[in-house]
Request: fold
Amino acid sequence: MGDSVAEERVLYVTGRLERADLPELYETACQMLKAEPAGVVVCDAGGLADPDAVALEALARLVLAARRSGASVRLRNAPPDLQRLVDLSGLGDVMPSELRLEPGRKSEEREQPHGVEEEVRPDDAPV
Reply:
């Protein structure tokens, strides 16, 4: 028996979302899920501008549509403002975020945010 790997489908969310955009976005997600109901839907929010409550509602609708068809959702390239909204709302519990690394770099090679660098002093006790 071979391992089965869930197919990943990507839904790109770009620009500024308005409430009027939500039905079309939801319908696009539903059509994507009807074509292949199980697996993972990746919501790539890297092009999203000015994330707000409308963007959060769009993500919640995506999670609902995916769950109804037996799929799961991961958030990719979320702008920091959107990630904070997702975390604050609790939506992150049902929609984990993916960290996207620069090509050719390993996770331990990432720079610390805001120019913070880890420093070890000789008199520091080991943890």
Residues 101-117 have pLDDT under 50 and may be disordered. The domain at 8-98 is CATH 3.30.750.24 (Transcription Regulator spoIIAA). The first strand starts at residue 8 and ends at 15. The CA atoms of residues 12 and 54 lie 16 Å apart.
